[in-house]
Amino acid sequence: MALYNFKKIMVVPTAKDFIDLTLSKTQRKTPTVIHKHYQIHRIRHFYMRKIKFTQQNYHDRLSQILTDFPKLDDIHPFYADLMNVLYDKDHYKLALGQINIAKNLIDNVAKDYVRLMKYGDSLYRCKQLKRAALGRMCTILKRQKQSLEYLEQVRQHLSRLPTIDPNTRTLLLCGYPNVGKSSFINKVTRADVEVQPYAFTTKSLFVGHMDYRYLRWQVVDTPGILDHPLEERNTIEMQAITALAHLRAAVLYVMDVSEQCGHTLSQQLELFNNIRPLFANKPLIVMANKCDVRKISELSEENQKVFTDLTAEGILVIETSSLTEEGVMQVKAEACDRLLAHRVDTKMKTKKVHEVLNRLHLAVPTKRDQRERPPFIPEGALLRRKAMETNAPKRKLERDLEVELGDDYTLDLQKYWELMNPEEKQDKIPEIWEGHNIADYIDPEIMKRLEDLEQEEELRAKAGEYDSEEESEDEEMKEIRQLASQIREKRKLKILSSKEKDTQGSRMPRTAKKVERATLEKEMADLGLDMTDKDDSHYARRSRSLVRKRKREVSAPPTSRTRSQSASRPPRDQSGVRDAKVVPACIIHYVYILQGDHMKANIRKLV
Amino acid sequence: DHHERKRKKESREVHERSHKARKMIGLKAKLYHKQRHAEKIQMKKTIKMHEQRKSKQKDDDKTPEGAVPAYLLDREGQSRAKVLSNMIKQKRKEKAGKWEVPLPKVRAQGETEVLKVIRTGKRQKKAWKRMVTKVCFVGDGFTRKPPKYERFIRPMGLRFKKAHVTHPELKATFCLPILGVKKNPSSSLYTTLGVITKGTVIEVNVSELGLVTQGGKVIWGKYAQVTNNPENDGCINAVLLV
Hints:
The complex is a heterodimer of chains A (607) and B (242).
Chain A: H1 15-29, H2 40-68, H3 77-87, H4 89-117, H5 123-142, H6 145-159, E1 170-175, H7 181-188, E2 206-212, E3 215-221, H8 235-246, E4 250-256, H9 265-275, E5 284-289, H10 301-312, E6 316-319, H11 328-349, H12 352-359, H13 379-390, H14 398-405, E7 432-433, E8 436-437, H15 446-463, H16 475-500, H17 517-527, H18 563-568, H19 598-606
Parallel strand pairs in A: 1-3, 1-4, 4-5, 5-6
Antiparallel strand pairs in A: 2-3, 7-8
Helix pairs in contact in A: 1-2, 1-5, 2-4, 2-5, 3-4, 3-8, 4-5, 4-6
Chain B: H1 2-23, H2 27-54, H3 76-96, H4 111-114, E1 115-120, E2 126-132, E3 152-153, E4 162-167, E5 172-183, H5 188-193, E6 201-205, E7 221-226, H6 230-233, E8 237-240
Parallel strand pairs in B: 2-3, 4-8
Antiparallel strand pairs in B: 1-2, 4-5, 5-6, 6-7, 7-8
């Protein structure tokens, strides 16, 4: 049995939309270019593909519709009956049948035309055949317009049906319209059913959920039922009857004692007797509702007899009022208990229970001697239980205090302290007094503790726990450290020197300032870079116009840039490197063959 | 808030439609504009109808049938004569045996069009076999000649048994079984082969229609003329010759 999810049925498109969709899909997803001079088998294949593609699409979509919609024979009889009431079983089956027929017809059409296409010997003929095939398929679908519209409406309604699980614990409310069923369900569950003074406010089934004894219960609210024979009932009432007939639930028959619903008690009793057969095998409770308006004891003799008769038959009658909530909890408890008992009974009667029962065994310890060993309950527990029973006022909780005070509430833990002088509980404690830090004097042994700590520290220092590990630094780390210290020194000197210099108005940015060749070479030499023989370098070269013509053997990128540019930019092999000295040996393989051998020689010297 | 939403959606629809109509391009746009054009024509017609209701117009049908203006009252004899001469003309036509068919003229189909040459033989040199490329009809008891001697091949895929026949007066179409090919206008060879092209007169089984002769006999066969190119459409559409 396929699992149906009524909310997940795919949208059923209208006939026109369906056709447009499929045709445009065919146009987009199949190749569109074909010429007369192509080979005939290619032309045939091209058009055959289109026909098959369209057929495939129609087939898929129609099959999906057929599988999505629930088969009335496969679902729970409650839902089958409900759908019959709402949508008319015959119409539903017919619509689905038509869709099935259409699907088969489309398949046949495609098959025929593909067969005919094999004899097409010209582009024109094949094209006409394809046009005929697609046209026929679309006409078949156009005829299904009514079925598709109907199915779309069914789908929309179906997805809005309340999810009633027919197998779990359910309470079912029934009775005349306006007796107070919806108010009851609003009180007991979180459902928000409309409650209005006119009859048939509730037009369909509503579900609410509640908890009792750690179990989930469904409460189903039905539209009111009027008293006429089954054949004359309209759709709304039929829904209620369906629910009554198929759901295995505890039935709460609601009667209006005050007769505000517009029907006398005798009429309500009539209805009760008429629907009696539907209550077979179900735990039944009669709710005398609206008892805040009129109690049973205030009724006339004959009306009271009604209720006494019911009680005499063994049906529980409870007075309730949705307005004052009197009796609501009692009804709930009673109904739930009875239903549980009923369910357990039915389960016991089935054969499956024996399988479980056979495996269960209650082990009772054998009596060792004749001494009585009653269960031990400590005194405190007994007292507490007594207190609970008498509803003695418990200790006031902080939470209660918080609720009382509202915004003014502050957590005051100082009131729990135990002091010699209880009036001092709320006093503020100073931090410094007479020049001394109070925290120092809290603990009388604080000096001793300090000494202990210090001794421990000495021991630890002696043991060498705080000595830093001398890592084995390799050459380059040492070099780097040395260089770093040098840099720091130099930086400090520079800062001092710049501070001494007096600033003369706005300064030129460094890039615009001309750096003398001599200063550059001097600085680099200080750092240790070999600056001899630098006539060929980029900063010493003249501007573009005087550059020598590049020779062909030297397949190097032209490095002649104007001097203003070159002064600030290092050559590309060293642009990423901060200081030439730090270049480790491994960087050598990134060196390009640059202008002349001078650079190469220099680099070799560095390493 | 369902009603609120619905109302708002409907009012938004106008703007969305105009936006769509302006921005759409391509094939979709052509189809949409065509459809919209048809819709607009209908709207205009209904508006015009509503307007006509309010205004009064001359009714041209008030004059009854057969009424004649005053100055023609003496000319009855002439009309009767015309009727008589028409009858005589019809009788003459029937005697001549001229068939009036819906398609009097039809394009002649050449042999190269209708028959395709099939080469056979060890070296594919012999070319005496022909395959029919048009739709054909073979009778119920048809059995092929032994394939070796078969000169004309009528492929099974192109054999049709039913035709969609329209009654010209009832304007209703029925799917009737074909009884045989009466005459193919292009060539008598095609008639014998049973090739059905546009303009071919075929005989169809009309027992479905329940026609009865004056004598009380049931008519079960009638002629119909083919009105489409069956090899292009995959079906035979014909008009009944009454």
